[in-house]
Batch of 2 targets.
Target 1
Amino acid sequence: MMLDAAGWTALRLSLLVGVTATLLALPLAIWVAWLLARRDFWGKSVLNALVHLPLVLPPVVTGYLLLLSFGRNGPAGRFLEETFGLVLAFRWTGAALAAMVMGFPLMVRAIRLAIEAVDPKIEDAARTLGAPGWAVFGSITLPLIMPGVLAGAVMGFAKAIGEFGATITFVANIPGETQTLPSAIYALLQVPGGEDAAIRLVFWACVLALGAVALSEWLARRVARRIAGA
Amino acid sequence: MTLSVSLRHRFGGFALDVAFEAGPGVTALFGRSGAGKTTIVNAVAGLLRPDHAEITLDGDRFDTQPVHKRRIGYVFQDARLFPHMTVADNLDYASRYGARASDRPRIIDMLGIGALLDRQPATLSGGEKQRVALGRALLSNPRLLLMDEPLAALDGPRKAEILPYLDRLKAETGVPILYVSHAVDEVARLADHMVLLADGRVARAGPLFDVMADPAVVPLLGVREAGAVLRGRVMAHGDDGLSTLQLAAGPIQLLGVQAAVGSDVRLRVLAQDVLLSLSRPQGLSAQNILPVTITAIRAGDGPGAAIALDAGGDALLARVTGRAVQSMGLEEGQSLFAVIKATSVAQSAISGAAI
């Protein structure tokens, strides 16, 4: 099941996109999950719907909306290019953004469940001992939700590795730049005689996905044990 | 150290409107469930924002401060230890912000938790958890300690295990304590002052001995729980299990006194366990007969009446039937004799704590 050079490029790019998307999305996902779990504010249900939108929209629609807003002529895309010189359209960075958006709801769901499992009375106790709010989050809430955060990160990573519809719509299928594993498999299946190479990629995609799911299951069990033990 | 609390808060058809002061020592907030006790301590801690509050400690108003700046130790009914930290880490968490690390060995020793330091909270018994929670609250170097029914979640033996530590805590630390409870025996044993709450209002407040001996509080405490608290000194332990205690009005004999000879103790004498006699009774099995004077008679809503008595300077409370008041011709200022059965003063009501 050895890969050729093009296959390795796609696998490496998938890992780069997946890791980048996961690391960038994680802090934001923790914050949004905390807002949804612990705060009441005007527009909370709107935020909740917005977060879950990529889960229910056709991925092609999400990709097209990304292209409209983050493309070179889109308002957000133009702002990022003019301010930071950051171009997303048809670049691997755009693939990472698409993967972030698609994996975000899965991360938020896992982390939100973990936060809701933490008894706010424990956090109150920490505050009475003199810990300011940010310190309570860092020393009490975050360690207690860490298994949930890891599980969410694994889910987001798996989603990022497998993301196809939004990615190909937003950043196309450029070998070496935006061609991740699913895009590469799709491309191979479009040409005669590509099945053999496609099968090898499919094998590696399965390895990554199963590994991620196994890790996530293991972490989820640890969460359950911890909550039962506390 | 004087804590002054003035609060108004409304929620779900319940209105709380209280004002009281708490001096040094232990002030008990006493009332039935739903009387507003926990609401008050949560407001003092800052965990609840009441509609109106004015809370000061020695003139320093702190109800506008955030929780973490108030320096108020809080011992919850459920110990609320941090489940992901060892006992030692739980204690260190408090001293990290309270900077009272120098007292750590003394506090650990006082609460007897030295052997628990490496354990996880999930492996501790209820009583052990509560002792660690106490130590953690003390290590935050509080100006005031709030205790919200710290014994309510514990069974009888666990309660008995932790009560001596509370006695020591009271004797050894100068921190004023606001102690929430609906158990009269705990309050009678620990408190110096008492604030009686009923339906969100202060029904009676004052020094514990005065409040407990007030006939007007009988309906608030319940006729079975009402009874004066007396001070006494252990004079001797007899071979037959009876101990002699010296009260202001004279010596009495009681069963099951644990305190050492010479120590001062508190006795809770239930009003329903005190009999009255116009003349000094002869040939009675009860041996404890004290000369008393009636200071007040309060007819109850039912057939009973509460009689306040002066026993050589100590206040005593008796509960008799209204018919007895009539037939004996009881009236204020009258001198007569109170009879207390040796077995009727419960062991748990006798405290060896400093008074």
Note: DSSP finds ten helices and no strands in chain A.
Target 2
Amino acid sequence: MLRDKRQEYLVALLLVGPFVLIYGALFVWPTIQMAMLSFTKAPLIGTGDWVGWDNYVKILSHKLFHQAFWNTAYFVLLTVIPNTLISLVIAMAVNRLKGPVQGFVLACFFLPYILPVSVVFLTWNWIIDVQYGLVQGFVALFNGGQPISLTRTIPLFMPTVAFVTIWWTMGFNILLFIAGLRNISPEIYEAASLDSAGRWRQFQRITWPLIWPVTALVLTIQLIAQLKIFDQVYLFSIGGRQDATITLVQYVYKLAFQQNKGGEAATAAMLLFGMIIILSVLQYQLLRARGEK
Amino acid sequence: MADIVLRDVSKSYGAVQVLDSVSMHIRSGEFIVFLGPSGCGKSTLLRMIAGLEAVNAGEIHIGDRRVDQLPPNQRGVAMVFQNYALYPHMTVRQNMSFGLENVGTDKGEIAKRVDEAARMLEIGQLLDRRPAQLSGGQRQRVAIGRAIVREPDAFLLDEPLSNLDAGLRVRTRVELAQLHQRIGTTMIFVTHDQTEAMTLASRIVVMNNRKVEQIGTPMEVYSKPASRFVAAFVGSPSMNFLPVTALADVGGRVVVTAGGSTIPTTIATSVAPTVGQGLTFGVRPESLRVAADGEISGTIALVERLGDRTLIHTKLSDGTVIVGDDIGKSTLEAGAPVRLKIDGSAVHLFDAQGVAYHAD
């Protein structure tokens, strides 16, 4: 059916209009404002004098920024790849189950994902509590029979929070992997078993390459999410030496809300924003290229 | 090259039985077709031979080995799947090499076999492509190629032509027959298409309702169907069936009264059942020719012109419609009266259990 071209445009505009408007007002405009703010000496509220690149020079040479950067990088290292691999293994196991059992087991793994971070924090803070935590019985085996605080011992802090984060978020990754695994036709595995491919070889040559696009997606989503880590690290470090375990978003928070340095906080946020864009685009392109090889 | 023997093979999923005590002996080099309607268990039987489905009872032997407890790769069979089941991320060459790599075949040998199969199937120029870049017919060839390079004792083909368009299906059918002649390996081919079965098979295994109805050459199955089911399922257009109202004995031969006509046959009275057993008379359209001196008279309900022959749908006095045959250039029109002459040597009787009795 032929329609008036102008009418078509009008309808199209009407349909995209609300989104573009809200996206512009709530994301694009504030982002531009933040970029502008990073070049000023503004407090948290109100405007400030233009200082050019001064904030960037200052932040980049700030010791705490370096600390936050390396802590974040360490956290990313501890979560992104392990979370992806564990999720894949669990997804493959769940995928072998059938019918209602599969639904139940999947629900069990997915349940933590729907919990708010405060509940996750309280639950695990209780489990790892140094006096009555369930985990202490296990931890004591590695500490000469003595309990040890997992969130007050600095070298153990990040691995502990990483573990809790993996437990909390893997449900979603498992779901993505299961969707991907179900896309692989069972006939392909039957063909492979006739082709003398054992379990491991089937995984290596069939499952892994065919699930790769999902793996790349999960890795990228994870990378972005973990670079923005704040809640868990903040909650578990309350009352401790927060600077020792500070992450980048926490650093932004500290500058803005504890030190009233709006301009510098914006600068740190811009640096993080740039990092996330570069890293995630780079990673996704690299992973995709690998998949196409 | 090996014989395949099935002994009382049964299969059920929970309470649902899908195969009931199936036995057969497939000779080395035969082209066997499992023919039957959807859900008759033919694909399940093939998958059981392949080792993709467990056998609940009975034995499967390939060559001198009992294989029903062996994993698929140790049975010496290769399978072509309905949807080809090619590895989508591998090139054609990798698809064909995979099975040989897994058993540690020498690289040079793999390349030799793949190139040879590719030449035989005329897919040499496709070796570096992926399945997604191939047409349905090309994928089909690759799937066959993947089976050939393994040099199996038997090829198992699960409705491999059903995803091809009509023209390509006929061409591939011919090529498959030629391929079988050339390599001479046992082939078991599953289909619900009786034309494929008739044209390809050395012997057809007609299956229905969990059981084997008949095993025979295409012409045996066609001209001497073992049961009413086989008679109805094989042949297009289908056989005509008329209830028998009376039987008479004229010189040791049965004379049938059916559809209001008296029809002499060459069925021996000695072997024929007696009336009252719910007898049905069966005759194929090509044995029911338009002729002025025909035994059966009726009115033409519909004329189907196929070019080389004309199908005359004839309404009998009792309202039954049967299909007769006329020459391609038939001038008959619907509504006209017609007489059909039966070839009494090509008729069948079926009792209430569906058991068939044939003319000599």
Note: Chain A has two domains: 1-37, 53-292.
